[in-house]
Amino acid sequence: MNTRKTYIFLGVFFSIIFLFMSFVSFLAASVNFNSFIILALAIVSFGMYNLHPHLKNNDERASDIKKKAAYYSIIFVLLYSILLFVIIQLEVISNIFHVMNLYVSLIIITYFVSLVVVAKKN
């Protein structure tokens, strides 16, 4: 049970950091792309808090949940790739590092959200 408390603590910690970074970038009238990674870490922490009972036993059910979540998230990753390619071509976001930061954050968020959805569905 101590591990779940650690996950919830980390989730709250990363959420506070994300909210602070978002507030500061809102006041500066800009977008801080580094805050998306912090948001992804908060979602990972809350997701692991939720998934710990399902995945702590590395059995067939846990393996099935991971496989289904990876399958569902790869579909979204392909859609993200197409969307970000269009964003780069239209020069909506001109810095490639910002695009990659957004892309990695979306992949992390998608995988852990799909893990939670598949675990609740099974």
Characterise this structure.
The protein has helices spanning 2-27, 34-55, 60-89, 96-121. The protein is mainly alpha-helical and 122 residues long. It has one domain (2-121). Helix 1 (2-27) packs antiparallel against helix 2, helix 2 packs parallel to helix 4 and helix 3 packs antiparallel against helix 4. It is flat and about 45 Å long.
Structural class: mainly alpha
Overall pLDDT level: 91
User: How many β strands by DSSP?
Assistant: 0
Biggest sheet descriptor = none
| Amino-to-carboxy terminus distance | 22 Å
> What ranges have pLDDT less than 50 throughout 5 or more consecutive residues?
none
Any idea how many domains?
A: 1
Shape: flat
The proportion of residues forming helix, as a percent range, comes to over 70%
Instruction: Give me the number of helical elements.
Output: 4
Portion in strands? under 5%
Q: Helix and strand succession?
A: HHHH
Using the CA coordinates, give the radius of gyration: 16 Å
Summary keywords:
122 residues, mainly alpha, 4 helices
List the helices and strands and how they pair.
Elements: H1 2-27, H2 34-55, H3 60-89, H4 96-121
Could you give a short description of this structure?
With 122 residues, the protein is mainly alpha-helical.
